[in-house]
Each structure stands twice: as C-alpha cells, then as structure tokens.
Amino acid sequence: MSTALAGVAHDIRSRALGWLHTHRQLGALDGGDITGNTDGYKALAETGLAASLVLRDGTAGSRESALARELLDFSWAQLKEGALLYERLLRHPLATDTIEGYAHFARAGYRHPGLDRLIPHHAALGAAQVVEHVPNRRLAVANALRITGHDHGAGAPDWATSARATWLGGTPAPWCIDWMTGYHVTHTVFHLTDWGRQPGGLPGDMAAYLIRWLPVWTDIWTETCQWDLVGELLLVGSCLPAPYAEPDDWRRLAELQHADGLMPRDDQPVDDDTVTRFHDHQHTTIVAAIAATVALARALDAPAIGTPAAGAPGTPAP
Amino acid sequence: MLVERQRRDGLTLDAELLEGLMARPEAPVSGAPLHTPAMTTLVVMVLSPKEPKEPRDPKQPRRR
Amino acid sequence: MTSSAAVAVGAVRVLGADALAPYVLTGRALLPEESAAVRLSLSALPPVQRPPAAPPDGRERPWLRAWIDWGLVAVAARLDPDPWCVAAPVPQGPPPCDDSAPRHRSADGAVGGEGWVPWSLRMGQLASLALPGLDGPVHQAARSGALALARGATRALLRRDFATAARITRWLAWLAADGVALPLDVALLTEDIALRGGDDRCLLDAAIARRLLGLEVPTT
C-alpha cells in the first residue's frame, strides 16, 4: 500500500472511530442483559474487537488510541466487566460466543478472573471442535483460544481440519459463491490469520486461490454496492501474505463515508433517525475501521506492494 | 436492422451499423447474487422439534 | 437479391468466422453457395485496408470489425477449394494483460495499465477468432492472459451475463486446446454456462467451446 493510500486508510479509520465513539451510548444493552439483546450484544463484542485491533497494531496516534480505549471501556462496562459473559458461559456451556467475544477484550488488557479459569476448561472439553458450528465459526473459537493462550495441550484446536472444512478450504469453482458465502470466506481468513496479524496462518493454496479470485468478488459486489461485504473483502486483501489492494477501492470507500464517519452498508438511503442510522450502519463502520487498521499495519510492515503472485496459473483448481 | 441499399451492381452494408452489431456490450445490470433465500434445514424427524422452554426456577426435588 | 438473402449477408459479417464454424469443426469443404455468400458479404463492405490501432489507443469498434473480418477471411480462404484474393489485413493485436493487472485502469492512471475487466470483455468480442486453426496476435495475447480471461468469465457468470461468459470462455477453451494450463476447470465452466445460460447465441459459443475441449457435443 503506497503512502498516499495509507493516508486514505488512516482518514477512513479516524472518521469511523469518531462516529462509533460519538454514538456509543446508542449501543447500551437494554435492561443490562445479554438475553433478548442478541444484536446489541454482538455489536458490543464487535466494537471491542475493532478497538482492540486499533490498539494491537500500534499505528494509532494518541487521539485514536484514546477513542479506542473509551470504546473498550464502554463496551466492557456494558458487559458488566465480563460478568455477563461469564454468567452466560456458566449457564450455557456451549455458548462459545462468550469466548469469542472475551478474547478481544482480554487481548486489550480487560480480564475477568472467572472467565480466565473457565475458558481453559472449555478448551480441554474441546470447545473448538465439539460444538456443531459451521467450519468458519470453529475457526473463530480456535482463534479465541489462541488469543487467550489456551490453544495448547489436550484442547488444542485442529486448525488444519477446520480450515479444510470451510468453503474456502475446498478451493471450489470460483463462481460457486453467493453473498452469504462471501462472508464465510472473509471470516475464514480473519480467524486463520488472527485479523491480519499472522498472514502465514493461511495455507498457501488458499492464499493463491484468493489472489486469483478476490478481485472478481470485490468487483461484482462493488458494482452492486454491497459496501459491508466489500469492506470485509478489502480486509481479506490486507490479511494475505502478499497483500492485495487496489487504490480505487479505498478512494471509493473514503468518498462513500459520510462526513461524520458513518460508512453506509449499501446504496439504499440512510435513515435520518439517529438511532436507526446507528443500528443500520454500525457494522459497516466497524468493518471500515478494522479494514483500515489492518491495511495500515501491513503498510508499515511491508516495504512495498509487490505485484500479486498468481500462484500457479496453470493447474485447474483442485 | 442493417440498412442495405440495393444498387445496380450489388449490395452495400453500412459500416457503422455493422460495427454496432458486432460490438456486443456486456449486460448493463449485474445479476450478482445478493442473497440466496434462506434454506430450511431438513430435519430427520417428521416434526421439527421446538426448543423446550427454560424452567424459571429449579425444580423442587421429589420426596421419595 | 432477396431481402432475406441481404440480411443473411449482414449476418455472416456479424458472426465472422463463426458463420463457418460447422465447417471448421467438421473439416468439410465449403459449399459454393456458402463461399458466394461470404464473398458477397465482403464485397458489400470491404475490409478496411488500414485498420486502426488497438484500443484503448484506437477506436474500438472499427478495430473489432477489422479483426472479425480477418477471421472470416482467414477461415474462408482455408476452407474454400477455390482460391481467394480478398485480403483482410492483420490489425494490431490487443495489448497483453498479465496476472498483475488491476480490475480497471486506475483513476489516476498509475500502475497496471488497462484492467482485466475491459480487456477480457474485448477478448469476448473477438470470440469468433477462438477456433481451431486460427492463430495470431490476438491468440498470443490470450496465451499471456489466461488468468485475466478466467477472471473475466467468472465475473460475467456471477453477474448472470451468460452471453458474455460464453464468449470469454471460448478463449479459455481455445487455450486448453492449445495446451495452455488454466486456473479453473473450463469444462465445468462451459457446462455451467450452457445449462444455465439458455439463449441460442450463448449455446453456439458453448457448443464450439465443447468441441475445442474435445467433449461430446449433445445431439439435442
């Protein structure tokens, strides 16, 4: 990613964080409980994720770091400093969402002693393999155990098997994809690479497959203005061993982003009501913040954007 | 369609119209997948089970 | 000259070498009336003697016609037992499109050149050249653009633009017949388009692709 593009990404992230921070109260948990608040709970966890990544990669200035901290403080307080996650995991042992959510707070330094004891026990029970999740969700649990340091010993996740079980792991005909599968692909990459921290976590053939076909999927969903998915695809590009990024994609996102930092999820009119707007477009704005964050981290690591390796443009896809 | 003028000695084709027909532009609107409609999970049993309600209070143990 | 014959003459030019595809694929000699129709079509509007430069520099439509005319003449001259003196000059080949090409030319015109999206669409316009026995600058560009073609075909298919997908896939099939290794399964791609594409023009391209791949042509 060139210096100019890094500037674009930085600007996107800065505005997105600002919007998320300004309106964070709208994400408060109704009644102070996770139950019956699935969307709100999910949004708090994703806010924690985004903020934790901003702090993780060390590309944030003091203003952005402060915003990220306050987003974490707010989300953690909403989750009663982890107590809601802990109680949920005690009551519902198969609720791996608690582990998945907690990992990002823990990474940023927000710990709950009960969860810290309970999670290694669930790891030993085989949490990453036992629950009948779709394969990319298993990878989410595996990554959460990896982040919290409980991925060794008896309960070590079987990364290879779970990775191969995904759609991406089968490297299928590239036209056998739909919108939902697009999200399965993105999440597979996020968890295998720990949100871009470890591009080598992606098996070589899957990386080569993505280099070939990611541009196609990015193109078709850009054309139909699915900005939420496109944002995740840009993030995938930043997670690859040889990052894929096209300048026009980032410029487009910067232009689409509202002045206050909201990133619209598609080409439909954005609602005027503050609460509705927040719930409709929070996810996409979070995605933009994360995509920009990882892009910046890779830009600072890699000396230059190499031409994307074609992999083996000879052999038919397995 | 193609305009042809019949002259005494034969036929002419209009270059611009011909080139217009040769140029086959791509479909102007994308039919790209937005969403595959929700697929019902087929359950082995004839009636798909409804989730049992959570008991509010723990049951009192039965006296034997 | 009846009006329907006149229309047929126009149709031959639009199809280019594909008008003679049955002969190319079966190796039968051109019938005199077919030969006459092609010659008549070419005399109604002779091929340009100085074709324009390749796009994006030159104008696209006359350049496409120059190539389609070249293909028609090359195939007709080869198949016709009678000698041909109508010449169609070899136009400039398309620029190459390698694996590092962006999707579209970047807005600031920086690195990458023309993108694989417009490049593959243009190759699709020249699908009538993707026949056994034809070779030249366009085919050479196809050889270096296998990934661009594969991406273009996949993109068209996902957009449900079956006609475009079929045309671009013709080139992939031609490359397979030429022994070029491909990044996807072109037989599956061809089948997919033929089964889901529906319309006649797309089926013609799919049938030619199948023959190039050495697959069985369905009798229905």
Automatic annotation (TrEMBL), chain A:
Source species of the chain: Streptomyces bingchenggensis (strain BCW-1)
Domain of life: Bacteria
Pfam families for the chain: DUF6895
Protein name as annotated: DUF6895 domain-containing protein
Species lineage: Bacteria, Bacillati, Actinomycetota, Actinomycetes, Kitasatosporales
Segments forming domain DUF6895: 14-293
InterPro entries: DUF6895
Automatic annotation (TrEMBL), chain B:
Listed name of the protein: Uncharacterized protein
Organism whose genome encodes this protein: Streptomyces bingchenggensis (strain BCW-1)
